[in-house]
Amino acid sequence: MGETAVSRPGRTALRPPAAVGVLLRLLALLVLTAGTASALSHVLPARAGVTELSRDADPGGALVVHVRQTDLLEVRARWSSGFLGDKEIVHRFASLPLSPGGVAAFEESVGRTLRAEGKKVTFVEDDPLAGLGGLSAFVPVLYWRFVPEAWLRWSVALCCLTVLALAGLRRHRRAAAGHWYAACLLAGSGFFVHLWCEPFPLHRPGPPGQPAMTGRRVAAGTVAVLGCVVAAGVILGLVRG
């Protein structure tokens, strides 16, 4: 007997390979969302003090603290205690620190406080965001440069590379490859739009490639997602002060 596919009116039943593809796309969207949240948390860390640093530190010095001098009287120290646990100390000197400089003076002062509690941290004099700027939070392909969680940054990188590869395959797209490359590499949020829309919309399963998407629709979706990310960043910045 022939096998009949049963589906709801107006919906197309997904074959097993297509269903697996939907699950993978949803998983990739979840990974990108987590990566974007981690990136925003890193770009907009919570203000903290030595008390919070001491709480996160341990006797073995496993916690890495990135220290940089932003001007003659200011030093900033940034670290992460886990997913969305990014914190930053902003320390201002009352007077110009003597040689060897503000960073060394800050590290010595904090190190002395931690040693009194039987703890220590590993100071690294660098800035993971150097040369990237605040816009790096919106471009997932840059997350490997600064997202603290190694598993997350490489998972995001794998998702991004997969999307870029699929965008070049004609049978896997409803919009022109150039539209997707521009949306992904220039705005960043195009990765989300591609995963939602290609090869068919997640909210309306159907045959791949139908209906076609214009560049205007790709741009509209990209701007909409980018607006949501910006709004999330503004809210996070207000909450963290």
Characterize the structure shown.
With 241 residues, this protein is of the alpha/beta class. Helices cover 47% and strands 11% of the residues. It is built from seven helices and five strands. A five-stranded mixed sheet has the order 1-4-3-2-5, covered by helices on one side. A hairpin with a 2-residue loop joins β2 and β3. α1 crosses α4. The N terminus is likely disordered.
Brief account:
With 241 residues, this protein is of the alpha/beta class. The protein has 7 helices and 5 strands.
* Radius of gyration, taken over Cα atoms and rounded to an integer in Å: 23 Å
Task: Provide the low-confidence segments as ranges.
Answer: 1-10
Quaternary class: single chain
* Proportion of residues in extended strands: 5-15%
Average of per-residue pLDDT values? 86
Number of helices: 7
Instruction: Profile the largest sheet.
Output: 5 strands, mixed
Judged by helices, strands and strand pairing, the structural class is alpha/beta
Q: In sequence order, what are the helices and strands, one letter per element?
A: HEHEEEHEHHHH
- How does the overall form come out from the CA principal axes? elongated
Q: Approximately how much helix is present in the residues?
A: 40-55%
Largest sheet strand order: 1-4-3-2-5
